[in-house]
## 1
Amino acid sequence: LPSAVQTSTLQLRVPVHGRASERKSGSSQLFSSVAASLPEGLSKTVVKPGSGRPLDFGDVATVRYTCSVPGASQPFARSNSQKVIVGDGIMIRGWDTALQSMTVGEKATVLVSDPERFGFGAEGIPPFVPPNAQLEMEIELLGAEDGADLASLATSDPLKPVSRVNISPFI
């Protein structure tokens, strides 16, 4: 993945311990991001800042992404435009955590350095992701829609069949 950023583009580097941002030479300002609050084992470099509020749990995000193992010749997953529900647990924890720190229009490179907590762990996904492999995800948040309140949905009556009618108050 390209590591160079044009000098007119702002860049925020957030190390694993969430310290300091850096100004790219030629940039006229710094910007901040909630990326600084990412937990140890997950870091994010903002390549292009976005705008608006960060995503919430349950929001529907439209993303462009690639996922790879650092040093691999090609990504093991990619999409030019995919809708995902933030926090639904279908993707790895590092994905959901990083998405919740992003704003619409933002493009970032996310490094999962703790595969047990934020990646595929000891199992990996043979033959694409080896056991305990670090991951690199390039994510661009193309759009966002308010989604269902997943916490409220989870506490609704489990014996009642799920239908559009009984979940419509949450959508």
## 2
Amino acid sequence: NFSFSFIFFFYLPFPFFEERFCMSEKHFITHSFNLFFSYNPLKIVTLFIVTLLQGLTQGVSIVLLIPLLGLLEPGNGSSKTSGWTAFLSRFLNGVGVEINVTVILVFFVVCLLSVAVLNYYQSVLQANYQQGFSYEMRKRLFKKIILSDWIFLNGKSKHNHIQILTTEIPK
């Protein structure tokens, strides 16, 4: 009960913050995406493409395992196989590689390894982007704090300002 009320307390919006930054959810999402995209567009597009490739390689490796194992049946015509397995069968026969369990398992392991490499690359890219974005936002915030109208702020309650600067910014 204590932990729920403790968490609930911190998710309540601060009155100062709510009055100052009240905007619609659609505008908030659009503004946030523009901030993310404008920070480093090439890196976020690369991250998006890596995520798509990761999903594609995961799907291909799992979906093609059973049809590829079906190629091992003797007398299995290409009419029973899907387009991808028929293409892979023609490609391997054209290269001169005989289809056996070892070749299929090596192909499957290569697919799983590419998923793992793309997952690692995505994690590193995402962490770098997130840290760089946080650093840039903090730098902009502190610049605005330095350039703010201190005479006006000195006349207001300092409790809300201190609370936001000390607890909300590091998050």
